[in-house]
Amino acid sequence: MVPTRKRIFIIICIVVILGCLLRILLFNSPLPPVTDQTNYQRAIGAPVLVMVFYEALCPDSKYFITKQLLTAYEVAAPIMEVVSCMIRDNRLPQEAMRKCVKQYSENIDLVQKCYDSDHGLELMKHNGEATHSLRPQVTFIPTITIDGSQGRQASILKNLLSEVCKAAGDTDQAKKICKNTV
What we know:
- Keywords: Glycoprotein, Membrane, Transmembrane, Transmembrane helix.
- The chain crosses the membrane at residues 7-27, 39-57.
- Helix 2 packs across helix 7 and helix 7 (160-168) packs antiparallel against helix 8 (172-178).
- This protein is mainly alpha-helical.
- Helices cover 55% and strands 7% of the residues.
- The chain has helices at residues 4-27, 59-76, 93-103, 108-116, 118-133, 153-158, 160-168, 172-178; strands at residues 48-53, 80-81, 143-146.
C-alpha cells in the first residue's frame, strides 16, 4: 500500500505533467517563465494567466477549484488561460491519469512516456521551482497568481471572476464577458 502523502505527490505531479503536456501539444507554445513573476507582461488582448498552487485533498483547494475556478472558467474561458484536469479519484493516481488522458482524447502511452522521461522530470522540477519561487512564499493553500502576481489573495479566493476581469482590462471581449462582474 502506497502512503497517502506519496499518492498526493504522485497525483499532483501527474496533473502538472498532463497539463503541461496538453498545453505543449495543443498550443505548441512554451510555458511562461514563472520564476520571473514580477516582470511577467501579458500581451494586450492575450488571456489572463491564472496559476493555482494547490493540494489535491485539501478542502480549501477543492472548494476553490469547484466554486471559484470552475465557475469563473465557465463564464470567462475566452479571456483566461488555465491548465485544468479535474481528477475525481485521488486515491488511484494511475487511474486518474487514464481518466484525464481519455477526457482530452490523448495517447496514454505518450503521456506515460513523458512522465517516465527526463523531460517529465524537468517539468516536475520546473513546477517545484515555480512553487518555491513565489514571493511572498506560499503560506496558504490554495495560492493563486493572476498574470504572475499573488496580489489580492483574499479577493482572488473570494471572487476569482472579478479579479480576472480586472486583470483582463478594457478589451471588447473582456467588457462583454465582465460587464456585470466587477
